[in-house]
Design brief:
The structure is a single chain. This protein has a single domain, classed as Class II aldolase/adducin N-terminal domain (L-fuculose-1-phosphate Aldolase), CATH 3.40.225.10. The protein contains four helices and four strands.
Length: 146
């Protein structure tokens, strides 16, 4: 746990750069963390390529994904995914949203991703296929995953 919110912002920015370097996030992925002192807030970078994120790029949001301070830079349009997960799952403290090339065919085909051997059991019976992401859709999907 970081000692200060400045440390948290630096750690989160570093996490962005690490997962970008490792090829986990492409130019469109993002990571968020729940505020350690206020579970009704979270931190997420402004809309920027993960490999370029710095501590000053990290913005603070409420769980409805409204920035606490009006930004002078563009926020991620998909930030609502993070807010709805944090809202639905108080036990979750971090979210990584990305477009893994190995998963994208399942996301656009309409065919559910199914576990085929024991290591896939952690995902449950199947992964949901979501056609559009509104706050209501995100909330319903993530609540259903329990």
């Amino acid at each position: 746990m970081p000692d200060t919110l400045s440390d948290l912002r630096r750690n989160l920015a570093e996490a962005y750069r690490i997962v970008a370097n490792e090829g986990i996030l492409d130019a469109f992925g993002h990571i968020s963390v729940r505020h350690p002192g206020n579970p009704n807030r979270y931190f997420l970078s402004r809309s920027r390529a993960p490999s370029l994120v710095q501590a000053d790029d990290i913005l603070e949001y409420d769980l409805d994904s409204n920035p606490l301070v009006p930004p002078t830079v563009r926020p991620y349009s998909e930030r609502v995914i993070h807010g709805e997960i944090f809202k639905a799952r108080p036990d979750v403290n971090a979210v990584c949203h990305h477009h893994a090339p190995s998963i994208m065919p399942f996301a656009i085909s309409g065919v559910p991703l199914l576990p085929v051997f024991h290591l896939g059991a952690a995902m449950g019976r199947s992964a949901p296929v979501v056609r559009a992401c509104s706050p209501q859709v995100c909330c319903a999907v993530h609540r259903s995953r329990g």
